[in-house]
Specification:
There is one protein chain. This protein is of the alpha+beta class and 332 residues long. It folds into three domains: 8-37, no CATH class; 50-241, Chemotaxis protein chec (3-Layer(aba) Sandwich); 262-327, SpoA-like (Surface presentation of antigens (SPOA), Roll). The protein has eleven helices and ten strands. The protein has helices spanning 8-20, 25-33, 50-75, 91-97, 122-132, 148-161, 163-168, 220-223, 232-240, 245-256, 273-277; strands spanning 79-90, 103-110, 115-120, 176-183, 197-207, 210-219, 262-265, 295-299, 302-312, 315-323. A six-stranded antiparallel beta sheet has the order 1-5-6-3-2-4. Keywords: Bacterial flagellum, Cell membrane, Cell projection, Chemotaxis, Cilium, Flagellar rotation, Flagellum, Membrane. It is found in: Cell membrane; Bacterial flagellum basal body. Belongs to the FliM family. Pfam families: FliM, FliMN_C. Residues 254-324 form the Flagellar motor switch protein FliN-like C-terminal domain.
Length: 332
């Protein structure tokens, strides 16, 4: 039996207990000779190692950040999403842990086998629906009486949100999430055997003053083909791996075709708030740019060229005269 390494504090406490008589050395030897039995629950089979659970947690921490950005832009309100826990439990235990009436989205992750469930707490779902419809994000839990319009809006909202799952999973698999079912009663989802092991990633979600959980239920059958990619060894290999030549070429082509805004800045002017409020049609604002000086051309908000304004084919144009070395601003 492998020995357990004790800290210096534990060693000192053990010696102190032996010297004061609180612990008997003979009893200690007797306990060591006794076989230690650990109870194993076959209904709660552990199919994932702690290392694999940590990898899934990292992946869905990235997913939580992507969801925060997506919902913040979509709902235009304060959103905060983070991973609260990641556990492997029987499917039956997952069903018992969620509300009797809730929002359940079932997704296929092609080309992987099986389906996953994303459960959104009704408080969160209704707060999102209220924001989409122009409200303040108030939650009214009446999930058992969803109208067809509410069902359609919710399913589309969560379907678009799960597009971010594709990006979060790119390190382990190229998936295509497809919404296959929208349900409100967990008892109608007889997808797996009650004792099948699933990984449940719980995301703590805050929308304004409303908070709740988003639970992602992933069965073992979905993750089984990519289990080796969830090990720390695989992640360390990928960290040190250099890009393939075709990947570099593709990246270069993508950068070359990227759109960048080009702005010719005619000049700037400082106004007080009072002067700004009094502006009217026909007023003239004096700029700090002389007509005999070249103007600055910004590329992607960075000063890159000097130029002069003019006309080309009866259209306003700007002629590039000189490159700004080092990207410094024109202070002349």
């Amino acid at each position: 039996m492998a020995g357990e390494v004790l800290s210096q504090n534990e060693i000192d406490a053990l010696l102190s207990a032996l010297s004061t008589g609180e612990m008997n050395a003979d009893e200690l030897k007797k306990e060591e000779s006794t076989k230690k039995v650990r109870t194993y629950d076959f209904k709660r089979a552990l199919r994932f190692s702690k290392d694999q659970i940590r990898s899934l947690t990292r992946i869905h921490e990235n997913f939580a950040r992507l969801l925060t950005t997506f919902f913040s832009a979509k709902l235009r309100t304060y959103i905060q999403i983070n991973v609260a826990s990641a556990d492997q439990i029987p499917y039956e235990e997952f069903i018992r842990s969620i509300p009797k009436m809730t929002i359940l989205n079932v997704f296929e992750l092609a080309p992987l086998d099986g389906r996953i469930i994303i459960e959104i707490n009704p408080n969160i779902a209704y707060a999102m629906l209220d924001r989409v419809l122009g409200g303040r994000g108030v939650s009214i839990n009446k999930v058992e009486n969803l109208t067809e319009i509410e069902t359609k809006i919710m399913s589309q909202l969560f379907e678009h949100a799960v597009d971010n799952l594709r990006e979060a999973w790119t390190t382990i698999a190229d998936i295509e999430p497809i919404l296959t079912e929208f349900e409100v009663n967990p008892q109608f989802l007889q997808m797996f055997s009650p004792n099948d092991t699933v990984v449940v990633i719980s995301l703590n979600t805050q929308i304004g003053d409303t908070s709740g959980m988003i639970n992602i239920c992933i069965p073992h059958v979905v993750l089984e083909p990519i289990m080796p990619k969830l090990s720390a060894h695989y992640w360390m290999q990928n960290t040190n791996k250099e890009r393939e030549p075709h990947e570099v070429s593709l990246l270069e082509r993508s950068i070359k075709t990227a759109d960048l805004p080009i702005i010719a800045q005619l000049g700037t002017s400082a106004l007080t708030i009072q002067e700004f409020l009094q502006l009217g049609i026909g007023d003239v604002i004096q700029l700090d740019q002389g007509i005999d000086k070249p103007i600055t051309i910004n590329v992607g908000n960075e000063p890159k060229f000097y130029g002069q304004p003019g006309k080309l084919n009866k259209k306003v144009a700007i002629q590039v005269m000189e490159e700004i070395k080092g990207g410094e601003d024109n202070d002349e």
